[in-house]
Amino acid sequence: MTARIPVPEPAHAPAASQPALDQIQAAFGGVPQMFRAVSNSPAALQSMWGAFGALGGGAIPARLGEQIAVAVADRNRCEYCLAAHTALGRKAGASAAEMASAQAGQSDDPKTAAALAFALQLVEGRGQVSDADVARLREVGFNDGEIVEILAHVALNLFTNYVNVAFNVPVDFPAVKLTAR
C-alpha cells in the first residue's frame, strides 16, 4: 500500500511538528504511521495530538473511548483505526470479544451499548440526532459532560478515519478484519 502523501520519518518532519512527535514517541515507544502522515501539517498534528490528550484525561474511560473508536472505524471502513483502536482497547482492559462486539456497535453492558448506538447515530446521521437519542444516554446514567465527550470521541475518530482512508496510510498495527457490508 502506498500512501497518497509523504509519511516522513520523524526526523524529517517539519520542525514545528517535532515537539508533538517527541511526545508521541514517548507515549507509544515509536511514532505510528498516522501521526507521521499528519506531521506534514504541524497545526493538524497539534490539533490531533491535543485532542487525544484532552479526551484521554476526560470523564469517559479509555476502554469506552476505544470501543467507540472501533465502532466508528468500522462504519467508516478505516482499517488503520480499527487495527490501532482494537489494540488500544485490549490494552485498556477490553476482551477480544468485547472489542469485536463494539466493532459491530454492540455491547452486553447497557451503558456501553447506549454510547455505541449514539456514536453510530452521529456518524450515520452526520450529527443529526433526536431528543430521544440524547435521553437514552441520560437514562443509562451519562451526564451532560459525558454526552459531550462521546460526541468529541466521535469527532476525533472521524478526523483520524478520514486521514487514514483519504491518504491511504499504511497500517502498522495488527490487522483486524472489517465487518462485511
TrEMBL record:
Pfam families: CMD. Residues 51-119 form the Carboxymuconolactone decarboxylase-like domain. Signal peptide: none annotated. InterPro entries: AhpD-like, AhpD_core, CMD-like. GO terms for molecular function: peroxiredoxin activity. It comes from the Bacteria. SUPFAM superfamilies: AhpD-like. NCBIfam families: ahpD_dom. This is Carboxymuconolactone decarboxylase.
